[in-house]
Amino acid sequence: MAKVSAKDLGEQPIGKLLVRQAVPASIGILVMSLNILIDTIFVGNWIGPIAIAAINVVLPVSFFIAALGMAIGIGGSSIISRALGADNYEKAKKVFGNQLTLTLLFTVTLASIGLVYVDSIIPAFGGKGDIFDPAKIYYVIVLYGVPFLGLCMMGNTVIRAEGKPKFAMYAMLIPSVGNLILDYLFINVFGWGMEGAAWATTGSYLLCFVFILWFFLSGRSELRINSKHFMLSSEVVSEIGSLGFVTLARQAVVSITYLLVNNILFHLGGEISVTVYAIIGRMLMFALFPVFGITQGFLPIAGFNYGAALYPRVRKSINTAIIYASLLAFMVFILLMIFPHTITRLFTDNQEVLSETPTAMRWVFAATPIIALQLIGSAYFQAIGKAIPALLLTLTRQGFFFIPLVLILPRIYGEIGVWISFPISDLLATLVTAYFLNREIRKTLKYST
């Protein structure tokens, strides 16, 4: 493999560079999403549809804690990309060391609290009735591995910020493949049921952690840190926090969304409706992998070139990323509109779930062709270190629009009101993002050609 330098982010053609960054990111997200998807298919077919609902209840809690690592990673990686662009390697090292310390402190503390209050947290997120017992089994075991997942999420963003997307891709491939193998062994061969599904997930987090640890200790990283870099600096922590809070706030809103939707659907349709949402939630993670890959690939390119004051390249990276991501989103939209019944049958043969899921899926993905602009737009502000607009634009879809809609529309239209809240919030958030992104480009990148 040819040696890849962070400097390439400021020199190679934008189209070629975006593909080089986005393809590994997309493959990594694809495999990770396939892992979640197939894991759900295994659970649904080998354990039952209630087990799917149980996992859906647990994921927002465990992912929120692990998202602290992602928040610290993305916040710090934005600083690292700009520091590398400005040839300030000492700052990049200090930021990375502080990222490690913060991730360990927060994830271990919150995972411990989550284990103490398990009996209160699970019902709050919709784990009621027959869902509670399998959800508790899964939750407790998975939370043991959440600190490792947090470190993996943090480390992965740093690897990408260094301009090494292939290693970031490997960090996602290894645990994903490992989880599927462990799923087969623990659930189907050993017959461990929900415990098997949980241990397979936790084991996959450990595999990912081992690989990322190897990457940073083997000399492949340009960030060779020592003990002094682990000491927290108020200036660095503040800068990481202001940018990382965007990601954390997004995940917090996602967790609140799961809490609300699970409870509303349980009230309207019981366990079956929660299972329908669980299947759609997996498709939301899986189907949009190429769009998320473009977004991930765009971040270090925009951040590095902004830090190096190469504004024409920044503007071109925005336009190119939006075009590529929009084309991919449209293709995803066509497939989901045509094959919702086929997709649903992969998860379960339960007739109630089969009859309700396709219509709900079409509504949820109705605005897919336009979401690329919203994702790239909010990512741009985060990449260049403008935390407040990044935060506000990140929260527009689910925080400012979806949550109010999902609290109002089901009272009028019943269960269909939940599903139509998704495309309406997508449309409104995209319009708001388009306005602010266009204004920022005209103001900050006005000398672009």
Summarize this structure briefly:
The protein has 449 residues and is mostly helical. It has 15 helices and no strands. 56% of the residues are buried.
- Helix and strand sequence: HHHHHHHHHHHHHHH
Quaternary organisation? single chain
Count of discrete domains: 1
What is the tally of helical segments?
15
Taken as a percent bin, the fraction of beta residues is under 5%
The 3D shape can be described as globular
Helix percent band: over 70%
Instruction: Quickly give the structural class.
Output: mainly alpha
Structural Rg: 21 Å
- In total, how many beta strands? 0
Uncertain ranges: none
The profile of the biggest β sheet is:
none
Please tell me the overall pLDDT.
86
The end-to-end span amounts to 34 Å
Topology:
Elements: H1 14-46, H2 49-85, H3 89-116, H4 118-124, H5 132-161, H6 165-189, H7 193-217, H8 234-287, H9 289-307, H10 311-338, H11 340-347, H12 351-364, H13 371-383, H14 387-413, H15 415-444
